[in-house]
């Protein structure tokens, strides 16, 4: 959640993320912080760091935007209903779940207590569907490559 708030603040986004407004803000920030605009090496390095943060933040916010989630909803539903949990990782308030189809999703705001219930549940898949997968802000973090 901290990451979401930090990026929203950077892009001056309040409430739900609108992709059109986010893109406009992104373009403005990229122009403002482009390293080639600066002559001083210190400022250039600072701009380089800020540019990387802007790019990462943009891609992150796009991945959790309602429009993105809506466009990928069918694939997400297929993954959480038809495939099993292959692996999981929890740190802080972030739960990362890898499914047997190779999709990996990050869920934000999952407490240590809820994570404990998740890993100790009789059926992690059912517990996840009832208490996590449809309740928390999530994003697809990657699709694993299929080895032949």
Fold topology:
Blueprint: H1 2-10, H2 19-32, H3 41-64, H4 66-71, H5 73-82, E1 85-91, E2 94-99, E3 103-108, H6 112-120, H7 124-131, E4 137-143
Antiparallel strand pairs: 1-2, 2-3, 3-4
Number of strands: 4
* Main β sheet profile: 4 strands, antiparallel
* Unreliable spans: none
How many helical stretches?
7
Cα gyration radius (Å) = 18 Å
SS-derived structural category: alpha+beta
Element order, helices and strands?
A: HHHHHEEEHHE
How far apart the termini lie comes to 37 Å
- Give the % helix: 40-55%
CA-based shape? elongated
Overall mean pLDDT: 92
Your description of this structure?
With 148 residues, the protein is an alpha+beta fold. The protein is 54% helix and 18% strand. The chain has seven helices and four strands; from the N terminus they run H-H-H-H-H-E-E-E-H-H-E. It has helices at 2-10, 19-32, 41-64, 66-71, 73-82, 112-120, 124-131, and strands at residues 85-91, 94-99, 103-108, 137-143. A four-stranded antiparallel beta sheet has the order 1-2-3-4. Strand 2 and strand 3 form a beta hairpin. Helix 1 packs across helix 3 (41-64) and helix 2 (19-32) packs antiparallel against helix 3 (41-64). The model has no long low-confidence stretch (mean pLDDT 92).
């Amino acid at each position: 959640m901290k990451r979401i708030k930090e990026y929203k603040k950077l892009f001056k986004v309040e409430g739900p993320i609108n992709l059109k407004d986010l893109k406009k803000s992104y373009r403005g920030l990229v122009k403002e912080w482009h390293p080639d605009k600066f002559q001083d090496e210190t400022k250039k390095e600072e701009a380089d760091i800020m540019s990387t943060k802007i790019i990462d933040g943009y891609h992150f916010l796009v991945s959790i935007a309602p429009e993105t989630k809506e466009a990928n909803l069918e694939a997400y539903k297929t993954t959480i209903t038809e495939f099993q949990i292959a692996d999981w990782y929890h740190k802080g308030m972030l739960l990362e779940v890898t499914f047997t189809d190779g999709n990996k999703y990050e869920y934000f705001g999952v407490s240590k207590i809820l994570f404990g219930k998740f890993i100790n549940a009789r059926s992690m898949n059912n517990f996840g569907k009832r208490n996590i997968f449809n309740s928390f802000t999530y994003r697809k973090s990657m699709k694993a490559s299929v080895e032949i």
